[in-house]
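The following block was generated as part of the benchmark described in Methods. Ligand: flavin-adenine dinucleotide.
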Amino acid sequence: MAGPEREYDVVVVGGGINGLTTAIYLQRSGLQVACFERKLEAGSGCCTEEVMQPGVKVNLCACNMVTLWSPPYGDLQLEKFGLEMLTSSEWGMFHPFKDRTAVMFNSFHAQKTYEHFKSRNVHDAELFKTAFNVMGPMLGDSLMSSMFSQATNGPDEVVAADGLGSMLRMLIPEIPENVHELNGIELAEAVYHDEKIRTAILGNCIMAGSHPWDGGMATLMPIIFPIMQALQSVTWTCRGGSHALVHALASCFAYHGGRLFTGCPVDKMILEGDEVKGVVLSKDAVFGEAEVKARRAVVSNLSCHPTFRDLIGEEKLPGWVKEGVDAYKNDETVLFTNYWVLDQPPRWEGYPEELNEAYGFNFGMESTEDIRRLAHCLENDELPDPPIVAGLSVQGFALADPSQAPKGRYTMMAWSNVPYKLPQHGGAEKWDEIRESYGDKVDALLREYNPGIMDTVVDRYCNSPLDYYRKNPSQVMGSTTSGPTSLKWYGTARPFPGCGAPRTPFGNLYLSNSIWPFGTTNLGAGYVAASIVAEDLGVRKDQQDWWNHDGIAAGQELLKRRGIELDLNIT
Ligand SMILES: Cc1cc2nc3c(=O)[nH]c(=O)nc-3n(C[C@H](O)[C@H](O)[C@H](O)COP(=O)(O)OP(=O)(O)OC[C@H]3O[C@@H](n4cnc5c(N)ncnc54)[C@H](O)[C@@H]3O)c2cc1C
């Protein structure tokens, strides 16, 4: 690999999926862009590694790949660069209970979810139908415009939860008048009659990063999220594993003439006054201690703390910036992983047949009391015991894409929600000592639901939040979503008020991480960063006809090509 030039128009620090997305848009807009990635493989938040048996592809980070629901999927023609989105079944998610019943969510056919709910509880099915038919069309548009544009409002205004709450009350009379004082668990208890439906819905909200023990928008998510789930399914993998997305982006970047340098940790930003002029690579980098100047912009794809504390340097932060950076909360959504290899396809004996092919599930929550237990544990940095798996379990990787496991083998994973700090055990470093025993607890819990599946396990790999942090120092404390996702951190509050993200208080420096929207595989943060840098540098021209997909159009086209017609109305 030829070394980097001394100067580029734009330098991107970190080759994660969002950094690469920003890099491609800017390169395609006529700028000369270089991206420096710490590891030998780019895309740490979307890694697929053979850490178990050869041929067993382990998707350690993102597993619900939602890239199809984004402008970059279409603009960057990611299919042309090898990205293929796959799922195992129209039944995307389910929530099993110990009595061998399950609540199921259909990814494409809201009608089927409605009919399934109806078989459990007519009232709850009708509530879902009313909310879906009225709010479905609105949600698609408003969600998309907020996900792919720079935040202009803070947490109070961005979701207008009060207004939405009042509107929902007109549709659903059970919503109490004091909805604004309730949290999501209380609202779910007020409106859903069936304990299992409400528990399953709350589990899905947690999976999506919305904590139902919070108020504001989190209060309304138990009504809104089932609608979104039926309009923009989240249960997708990529052929070859999640990392295939990184390869598609890296190939696209190279195709358009961009340079990605792996094995090149960036050590420092070059600061002149309060302007960032380039970067210095670490002495351990492949091109050790090289100085690379940026003529027009530096984009940091690292999260808030490493960007400001490490690359700029704490001593160089103005007081108000330091305060904002210090307040940034990394450990709101932290996951512990069990990954299993099975020697049989997953079977759910005694449960509804649909579960066998379904993509993902949550478990360990029998009622809202378990959700409250999780809230208590996370608020007090206590390890849930027994564990609670509301971060998602996936059994559909090899069912959707046999290339993810050797012949005759299948994979399955579970994300338990845990605190990072572990004060009762003596601190976060104790994760190394308790990793396997906590993994055993997750095994034992799943055995209560499905002993048959656990009898087919031939290998297991566990990953703690400390392991995540070590593998990617930008994922501070193992944070799943590049920082917090609760209401307090919506919109312009990310990463701190006054930052103006993706712009920063430092000239020429932009962020494609820890900004609005939250980190997910919809590439929203990278897209928003690209839009603002392009605007500031005057390179986004009206005649750029490739930069023209809006919102979820590309995903809808993909479903159409597959012959899938989404239900837009429940009858
Ligand atoms: C456990 C887990 C589960 C998740 N599950 C899902 C899911 O199911 N669905 C979903 O949509 N999203 C999920 N996410 C979130 C998603 O993976 C991330 O939002 C996304 O990958 C973040 O991409 P990014 O480019 O913003 O950041 P990153 O992927 O963190 O990119 C930053 C890059 O910078 C590199 N780097 C770090 N330090 C330096 C340095 N000093 N110099 C140069 N490079 C550096 C890192 O190696 C990394 O490649 C999950 C994340 C985790 C951790």
